[in-house]
Amino acid sequence: MKTRLRFKIIATLICLSLAGLLISQGYWLKGLYVSNKKNTWDKIEEAMRMADYMEIFLRLDSLSKNDFHGEISPQFSFSQDTAWEKKKESISLDKIMESSPGYTIQYMEAAKTLNEYLQMIGTLERNVQILMHQQIDSLLPINYAQFNTLLKDGLQEREIAAPYRLRVIRQEAKDSVLYTYTETSRKEGSWKNAVRFTHIIEPGEYYYDLEIQSPDQIVFRQMAGILISSFLLFVIILIAFVYLLYTILRQKTVEELKTDFTNNMTHELKTPISVAFAANDVLLNYSDTINEKQRKYLNIVREQLNHLSGLVEQILTLSVENRSTFRLHPESVQVADVLTPLIEQFKLKADKPVSIISEIPDRMAVTADRTHLYNMLSNLIGNAIKYSGEKPCRIRIKSALSSKEATLSVTDEGIGISEANQKRVFDKFYRVPNGNLHDVKGFGLGLYYVRDMMAKHNGTVTVKSQPGKGSMFTLHFKN
């Protein structure tokens, strides 16, 4: 896979990850906002209901003291539990029901679920509150100012701080307003987006109308910690991803510079190698003035030039293979036609006796690029010779054909490869470690080239080896 393509894939995955994170975070925050909003609205309704209860009980205090016009201290504090304990002796549900025979409480005889039980209890409580209003309001009028004070305290206890407007509306008189309280001196237009809550005092007659300004701000203030932490987390992740992309882009640039340098260097090396080859050949073959010692050194120079030339050609082949314009030219290749000259070539240039036995049938053919098939077999045979060790070099080349694939295997009896190193022998520039000794020269590119070329042929290469017993490399071509 090319570096440019890998970079595009990584950048795409990072962008998709950020988009997914943003969407999931937004979806979660939206759900939290809806939940908090409903909870806040429930708290406001509860505050109105509890303020109504406490205002009723405060009037009960006045009735019990026969003080119908007494002022109620603004410092008065009340709780639901103590209110009920104080009043349960002076007023009971039975007494209210007995005094109101025309009003019946509807309830379910048997509730099947918890929700039905809760609905039944809520209905019962609401009916009790309405009956209490019917009985007490006839004796002592509602103190709207006191209700407003209790409501304000209830909202503050529930951490709901926002400007509000409270009105008491009588329905029978064409929705006439009996009482109005506005906490701030805002203009009338500023209440257009307010949220309205109603609490019925007596059905069909009176109800409290509460408008709260900027309701969304209440919810957002409650979610401030989560919103800020989510935003900071997203910013940190975004910065990390951007830095990662920057680092990858920088590494990509370094990789391209390194590749260009390697390509240019190998191209430039071909000229001095060719000149050195020509000079060495002239001295060896066309000079009568050199002695045996000089000839020996010239032969050593030629061997090293051959080795260096082979490495340069291998690097050039890899550089061509990594270009975006690289294309294979597959055709049906007779393997024997490629192997025969290759085997003779290795027998001639090997510095020790080599036995290469080919068991490839004459009509054995694979679909491959002829040039690269030649190079892959050359690399495998060359490695088998180089790593034959001190044993006699015996190499066997076999083939197999099935309905799914055709295989070519090169087997040697050399030093072998340990199981741990077998997993990495196809890596680029990897060489089996042997301490500080490098008896066999090379760059670790041959097997990498074989694996890469087989991948481009939609095939694979495998290795089986045992240390001290040799190795078998197999090329798998799909039919």
TrEMBL record:
Source organism superkingdom: Bacteria
Record keyword RNA-binding present: no
InterPro entries listed in its UniProt record: HATPase_C_sf (IPR036890), HATPase_dom (IPR003594), His_kinase_dom (IPR005467), HisK_dim/P_dom (IPR003661), HisK_dim/P_sf (IPR036097), Sensor_HK_Regulatory (IPR050736), Sig_transdc_His_kin-like_C (IPR004358)
Enzyme class label: transferase
Gene Ontology molecular function, alphabetical: phosphorelay sensor kinase activity
Catalysed reactions listed for this entry: ATP + protein L-histidine = ADP + protein N-phospho-L-histidine
One Pfam family from the record: HisKA
Enzyme Commission number(s) of this protein: 2.7.13.3
Keyword Flavoprotein: no
Signal peptide: none
Sequence ranges assigned to domain Histidine kinase in this UniProt record: 264-479
Transmembrane segments: 223-246
Keywords carried by this UniProt record: Kinase, Membrane, Phosphoprotein, Transferase, Transmembrane, Transmembrane helix, Two-component regulatory system
Protein name: histidine kinase
Taxon lineage: Bacteria, Pseudomonadati, Bacteroidota, Bacteroidia, Bacteroidales
